[in-house]
Design goal:
The protein is α+β, with helices and mostly antiparallel strands. The chain has 5 helices and 9 strands; from the N terminus they run βαββαβββαβααββ. The strands form 3 sheets. The protein has a 5-stranded antiparallel beta sheet, with helices on one face. β8 and β9 form a beta hairpin. α1 runs antiparallel to α2. It starts with 8 loop residues before the first strand and ends with a strand.
């Protein structure tokens, strides 16, 4: 997990922490939900929690590309949420959605004129503990989420604000816009997980899933 110095975390460090959290969270979700064969995953230790990570080069390349954009968007305060959608292959229907809300906790004008003024004094061990608690909740979600009866895939949606075309030229050539209403799940239940904060950004995690037909 990344921190800029022993005593403080910069915005760059905060973005790196969130990038890493999203990487392991998404891998854990697609493993637990059986999106791909378990043989495609290898065990890794993340922040003291054992997790499974895809070794499929296509998945790794896709996530690396998407999360690198998330990192840059956090730095520019231009992202509000990342949604991991689980979609049926046959009917292209979203049956489960994991939302990661990202909220800046700093003032753009704080320490104006001072180099590296935007820093957090929150200790890294405290941040790590908060993340461990959430990762354990994600791993335990298999106990309440309904089985996925249909073959599914997944997609990652970035919810942005501001003029992304101007600030990040070329990004819109790699991604396409979606209608927000298309993300809604009918007859859904929502479970809100714990949250963590780097002192500069707060991340709230929840899962929205379709209940089983009566």
């Amino acid at each position: 997990m990344a921190a800029s110095t022993t005593h403080s975390i910069t915005l760059q460090g905060s973005a790196s922490i969130i990038h890493e959290y999203l990487k392991y969270s998404i891998n854990s979700i697609i493993f637990q939900r059986g999106i791909y064969p378990s043989s495609d995953f290898l065990p890794e230790d993340y922040n003291g929690v054992p997790v499974m990570v895809s070794r499929d080069k296509r998945i790794k390349t896709y996530l690396d590309n998407v999360l690198s954009k998330v990192h840059d968007l956090i730095m520019k305060r231009m992202i509000t949420m990342i949604s991991v959608c689980i979609i049926t292959v046959e009917t292209i229907e979203i049956v489960e959605r994991w939302d990661f809300n990202i909220t800046p906790q700093y003032d753009d004008n704080a320490g104006e004129g001072k180099e590296n003024a935007t820093t957090s004094s929150k200790s890294l061990p405290k941040i790590q503990k908060e993340i461990r608690d959430i990762m354990r909740q994600i791993l335990a979600s298999i106990s309440f989420l309904p089985s996925l009866e249909d073959r599914c895939s997944f997609d990652v949606i970035l919810h942005t604000k501001g003029d992304v075309d101007r600030e990040m030229p070329g990004m819109m050539e790699e991604f396409h816009e979606e209608v927000i209403d298309s993300f809604e799940i009918t007859d859904a239940q929502t479970v809100v997980l714990k949250q963590f904060s780097t002192g500069l950004d707060k991340v709230e995690t929840k899962v929205v899933y379709r209940t089983l037909d009566p």
